[in-house]
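ok so i was messing around last nite and threw this chain in just to see what happens. nothing serious, just curious
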Amino acid sequence: MARVSLVTTPRAGLTWLWLSGLVVLLDQASKLAVVSKLALHEAIPVTSFFSLVYWQNLGAAFSLFADQPGWQRGFFIFVALAAAFIILHLLRKTCGRTLFCVALALILGGALGNVIDRFAYGYVVDFLLFYWRDWFYPAFNVADSAITVGAGLLIVDSFRRERPIQPGAHDQ
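result:
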């Protein structure tokens, strides 16, 4: 049985940009709160496995390339802005694929949230830290969470893809 999309206008995917904006707003507001309340490297334990911290990430995910002499700032800004343009193009061309559009909007909001940090500070503010005894997961933020959830939704969507209806297929 074929599903009929309620969203049929060109550029319908762009209606999801409100979600990207919400991610950027929540990301930047949470980072401002952390920077204004915590000293660099300060941690506030919340549970036995989670703390709020204030860390500055000069690198990418998991602090990849953080120890480099500075080239990574411009490189990561370029990559994020290129991804943003590609995502905007995909959203503009997408029609009726809600999960796909939500995933792209989350990734776009997360990428822009971290790009704002790189432009403003030269690093990304991370503040969510999960750990168990001596092991800890690298600190992250709302933007990173949105990117991760968006990537997961893209994977789910890739398994749900509908095949286009072939002309005459209903006649068989």
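not much to say yet. The mean pLDDT is 85.
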